[in-house]
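call fold target=Alpha N-terminal protein methyltransferase 1
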Amino acid sequence: MENESDHPPRGLVENKERGAFYKDAADYWSQIPATVDGMLGGYGHISTVDIKGSTQFLRQLFRLKVAPGKERAIDCGAGIGRITKNLLFNHFKKVDLVEQDPAFVAQARTALEAHSHMGNFYCSGLQSFEPEADTYDVIWCQWVLGHLKDDDLIQFLQRCIRGIKENGIIVIKENATTSTELDEDSTDSSVTRPLDHLCRLLQEAGLRCVKQKRQENFPHGLYPVYMIATRPLNQETSDDSLNQVGINTDLSASNTSESFEEEANGFNCQVEYSSDDSTKTEVSPTDTVSNRGLKFKHLSNENNSNRMREVTDKTCDIV
């Protein structure tokens, strides 16, 4: 049985009463302009790099032996539809989106409704959203799961499992802290989870990892961002690992070779270094920027005793 100590301690944000947790987030986003810069906290120029990384990751999923289809996807926590427009329209015949802020949904509708690939618009928080059963080839969740409490996240993912088709995939693209602690943002009522904590929640929801990769070429000072493709444990296919989601962030200081295998909570990862630092942004050591997903904070101020930063500069795929 899992011990309470296996999870990071909860602070003020996670301990908020459920209604207040979601109301505070909704109130925050109701004050944000319905623009790409608004979605990304003034860092709209990051969007191109983000979409490029997501495109490469999605193409790798389509090359799996048992690949997801290309009929229908849904963009969860879609904001004004940035990912729908720039990523999902390019790969799926129909794309639905779900977003809790009415102004963002209205802007998405104005911009995207006439597009031939546009499907349904849902105005709902993910804590209460239920995807239609057996409908989606890919469910894409990006920079939104930090707005769900742990229990609600597990239940949402379980509803997503019911919402995907037989060979469907649920993709999570989220920030990860560089320590073992939850990073709570009282401004927008969200949490940034350690990667292993997020992975445990995915496992509790009944998901296993198909592929995992770190987003490359984001500015210095940005939290590590991971793309994790998952499938239900009961949908075992021959093209990917049968192991559950998880990663061991306790890396040895001796692990400095160009590539190595790491035992990671039940599955092996082939880890490769990436040295591409072409995108640089200076961030003040005291700056923390809250926005829709991107979380900037000076990493040198964090507790890196478990050398989580080693993981942030590698690509980690199932082998």
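return ok
The CA atoms of residues 151 and 201 lie 9 Å apart. The longest strand covers residues 164-175.
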